[in-house]
């Protein structure tokens, strides 16, 4: 099938390459010329494990091409819109400028029977509004909403073998046509048993925001428990292990630490609250305000714990922050808790060096005032305290004895609870975790 993918960021670039892998002929379109020329050359414009290999593999088949010209979308039967919906400046609501622009620019190129599919995370009601516009501007086409659940760092696998597909479609024959087309797009994973749910537009939009809200709530729940553990001397990691053994609760996303960040969970819960307010249902989501507040409190707490590690004062202390990305296996620093803590430590008088295997270039753009060092060993040298904030494998596997020979003072704050406290203490370190003694 001929497919167009509008927007070639994390979501779109991975989606375009994955659709080509599934055997389709794909054109990826983006207004960013730099991104498109990278992709045309078979290079991923961001760090995502497995994507460079996938790009090379599918480009050799000739099924994947890229363009900056929307007119090149014409002739495809299914068009996926994968542009971003960031938080609006100074507000909680989502900024739909890119979604609206993408659909409006696409409409003139849609032919009879084409399916325009939104994949971006949008406030509930957006698909119905765009469907009205499509009825006017591209009357022969059908609009569907097919939310994406991929995680950065696992994007290729999550796209090729997702947990489920959700199709939001209109009622009647138009909806049936959209379902048939999407079934053809996803024929391979569907044949392998991936479940698919066919629902109305509003439900499809809400599935995505509800899923991210639930994940954020789970993380903030365990971080709230960490606060209680800190007040009582209990251990939040053991607590998470124990409650996680109940299948109804589950252990995943119960890792206490510096909290969640990134380009999705923080802005999605805020946009959801804003949308609920517009719909007169704000009371239903006031708990998300607390979820957000618990999450933000973790960052302040980590700064406080670092101060305690440094005998009560950060002034003049050399602190090495391990990790800049919002999570491992990613170079994304959007709303990264690690960088936000690093900046706070520096503001409060510490001399901060940040290291990360992949995210330093992006980090420098966000926080040019911080010092960055790509070599872990050099970054660790002569530090008065280490603060682990992104749990890259390399940091989880640090040898306490070897690191002890590099630093000036053996103080470590494990902001993700991924190190073995006993091993570090046995090597003479003053170890602090989150929500654990
Ligand atoms: C999230 C969702 O997990 C995806 O399903 C969704 O498709 C995506 O947003 C999106 O909306 O596009 P992502 O932002 O890539 O994916 O990252 P997550 O793996 O969800 O992690 C988010 C944050 O939570 C990270 O900062 C991570 O360190 C933190 N986290 C995660 C914790 O603090 N504790 C945990 O137990 C798990």
From TrEMBL:
Its annotated pathway reads: Nucleotide-sugar biosynthesis; UDP-alpha-D-glucuronate biosynthesis; UDP-alpha-D-glucuronate from UDP-alpha-D-glucose: step 1/1
- Enumerate the UniProt keywords alphabetically: NAD, Oxidoreductase
Where does the UDP-glucose/GDP-mannose dehydrogenase C-terminal domain lie? 320-421
* Positions that bind NAD(+): 30, 35, 85, 121, 152, 267, 334
Give binding positions for substrate. 149-152, 208, 253-257, 261, 327
Q: Name one GO biological process term.
A: UDP-glucuronate biosynthetic process
Q: What is the lineage of its organism?
A: Bacteria, Bacillati, Actinomycetota, Actinomycetes, Micrococcales
Q: What is the designated name of this protein?
A: UDP-glucose 6-dehydrogenase
Q: Which GO terms describe its molecular function?
A: NAD binding; UDP-glucose 6-dehydrogenase activity
Enumerate the NCBIfam families for this protein.
NDP-sugDHase (TIGR03026)
């Amino acid at each position: 099938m001929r497919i167009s993918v509008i927007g070639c960021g994390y979501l779109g670039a991975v989606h375009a390459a994955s659709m080509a892998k599934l055997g389709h002929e794909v054109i990826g379109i983006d207004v960013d010329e730099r991104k498109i020329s990278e992709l045309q050359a078979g290079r991923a414009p961001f760090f995502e494990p497995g994507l460079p290999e996938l790009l090379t593999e599918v480009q050799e088949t000739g099924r994947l091409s890229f363009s900056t010209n929307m007119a090149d979308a014409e002739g495809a039967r299914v068009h996926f819109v994968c542009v971003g919906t960031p938080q609006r400046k100074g507000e909680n609501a989502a900024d739909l400028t890119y979604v609206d622009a993408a659909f409006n620019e696409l409409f003139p190129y849609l032919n009879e029977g084409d399916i325009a599919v939104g994949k971006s995370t949008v406030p509930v009601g957006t698909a119905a509004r765009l469907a009205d516009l499509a009825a006017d501007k591209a009357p022969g086409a059908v609009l569907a909403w097919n939310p994406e659940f991929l995680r950065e760092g696992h994007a290729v696998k999550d796209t090729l073998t997702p947990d489920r597909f959700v199709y939001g479609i209109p009622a009647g024959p138009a909806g049936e046509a959209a379902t048939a087309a999407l079934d053809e797009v996803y024929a391979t994973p569907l044949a392998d048993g991936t479940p698919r749910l066919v629902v109305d537009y509003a439900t499809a939009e809400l599935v995505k925001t509800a899923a991210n809200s639930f994940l954020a709530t789970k993380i903030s729940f365990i971080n709230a428990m960490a606060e209680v553990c800190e007040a009582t001397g209990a251990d939040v990691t053991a607590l998470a292990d124990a409650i996680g053994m109940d299948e109804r609760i589950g252990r995943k996303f119960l890792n206490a630490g510096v909290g969640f960040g990134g380009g999705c969970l923080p802005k999605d819960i805020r946009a959801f609250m804003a949308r609920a307010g517009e719909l007169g249902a704000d009371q239903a989501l006031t708990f998300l305000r607390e979820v957000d507040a618990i999450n933000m409190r973790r960052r302040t707490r980590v700064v406080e714990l670092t101060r305690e590690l440094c005998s009560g004062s950060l002034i003049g202390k050399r602190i090495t922050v391990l990790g800049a990305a919002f999570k491992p296996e990613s170079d994304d620093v959007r709303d990264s808790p690690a960088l936000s803590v690093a900046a706070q430590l520096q503001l409060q008088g510490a001399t901060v060096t940040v290291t990360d295997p992949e995210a330093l270039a992006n980090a420098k753009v966000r926080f040019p005032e911080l010092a960055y060092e790509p070599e872990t060993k050099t970054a660790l040298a002569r530090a008065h305290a280490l603060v682990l904030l992104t749990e890259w494998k390399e940091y989880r596997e640090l040898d306490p004895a070897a690191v002890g020979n590099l630093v000036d003072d053996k103080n470590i704050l494990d902001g993700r609870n991924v190190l073995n406290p006993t091993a570090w203490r046995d090597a003479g370190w003053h170890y602090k975790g989150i929500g654990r003694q």
